[in-house]
């Protein structure tokens, strides 16, 4: 496949996915402000332009936001995105004080613990 053919395929992919996003978001009832604010809270025209002009960021952003539109259309409440973790995943002093360290996975404490550098498992 030559450079010209590859370039054509890329443009077809970008334009095609932008058109799909515009129609899909319209069918799901996307409107500016319906999700309660934020950068991804826009209508079909906004989604079309973001995906068309900045595909590598816009298309994954739409795919990540789409479940919230689906839930809203189904009559459910708007599902908020998960909150960012205050602490990144890693080993921290055990909050239960039963061990030296306990592993935090970014969302919750795990059963993975360590004492004097020896890993083991202990449920909270």
Notes on the structure:
The structure is a single chain. The chain has 124 residues and is of the alpha+beta class. The protein has two domains: 3-73, no CATH class; 90-121, no CATH class. 44% of the residues lie in helices and 15% in strands. It has helices at residues 3-27, 44-53, 55-73, and strands at 90-93, 101-104, 109-115, 118-121. The radius of gyration is 22 Å and the shape is elongated. The model has no long low-confidence stretch (mean pLDDT 84).
The tally of helices reads 3
What is the count of distinct domains?
A: 2
State the end-to-end distance. Answer: 57 Å
What helical percentage do the residues reach?
40-55%
Number of strand segments:
4
Helix and strand content put the structural class at alpha+beta
**Poorly predicted sequence stretches spanning 5 or more consecutive residues:** none
Q: Percent of residues in beta strands? A: 15-25%
What form results from the Cα inertia axes?
Answer: elongated
Note the main sheet: 4 strands, antiparallel
Largest sheet, spatial ordering of strands: 1-2-3-4
Rg, rounded, reads: 22 Å
Mean pLDDT: 84
| Element pattern in H and E | HHHEEEE
